[in-house]
Amino acid sequence: MKIISFNVNGIRAIVQKSFIQDMQQLDADIICLQETKASAEQVKEALSELTNYEIYANESVKKGYSGTAIITKTTPIAVSYDMNIEEHDQEGRVICAEYPDFYLVTVYTPNSGSELLRLDYRKQWDADFLNYLKELEAKKPVLVCGDLNVAHQDIDLARPKANYNKSAGYMQSEIDGIQAYIQTGLKDSFRHFHPNEVKYSWWSYRGGARQKNVGWRIDYFLISESFMSNVKDAFILNDIMGSDHCPVGIQL
């Protein structure tokens, strides 16, 4: 089984590019999307050419903002949306699909913002989301994927010194947030298989960052420790264009 996660930065924009062909070629069993920037109906319409998938989408109350989707060849046992915490459930950031052997959660973690105005909110989000994952994990293993909007270590961004405790995505409290996921038994699958590889999943649109590979690894698959033996590989697909992110994935 191949599972892909991709922050598309607008589903209606990316389907005008090579997205449909790219996904058909990848032929993943499940594709998780973040930042769809569309209503559930608009997501289904945009993805109508992917005929062999079922589509589950979550939308933000604010139009054209945030949003997530899971598209899957196998019908899940159940699908749920959000965390049941009103403060966090306004932006369509979480979907959970239950399969026989695991829960698959896709998440678009709130960005602290260029002025760091949402940093405190983000800290609360990280704590509450971890609790949510642990409640699921009490029942069966969890695979959580998506744009976590944080680089975990220096190896995960091109300019760690310049950004540490100055930029959203590399503030100490955000690093503590992802560290808490990992310390409580959710393994960073890419680092498990590629401990020393420098590979990024997001690049700024400014200053030719992607061409120069001045990037950040902020998209992840975190896997319950008890399930890691079922994961064969984790990968980052730098050659797939269309967004400021690229897809990341795992092979089970």
For this entry, give a set of tags:
252 residues, alpha+beta, Deoxyribonuclease I, Chain A, 6-stranded mixed sheet
How many strand units?
14
Individual helix count = 8
Secondary-structure-derived class: alpha+beta
**Major sheet attributes:** 6 strands, mixed
Structure report:
- The protein is α+β, with helices and mostly antiparallel strands and 252 residues long.
- It has a single domain, classed as Endonuclease/exonuclease/phosphatase (Deoxyribonuclease I, Chain A, 4-Layer Sandwich), CATH 3.60.10.10.
- It has eight helices and 14 strands.
- The strands form three sheets. It has a six-stranded mixed beta sheet. It has a six-stranded mixed beta sheet with strand order 5-6-7-8-12-9.
- Strand 6 (94-98) and strand 7 (103-108) form a beta hairpin.
- Helix 4 runs parallel beside helix 6 (172-183).
- The protein is globular and about 45 Å long.
- The chain starts with a strand and ends with a strand.
- The mean pLDDT is 98.
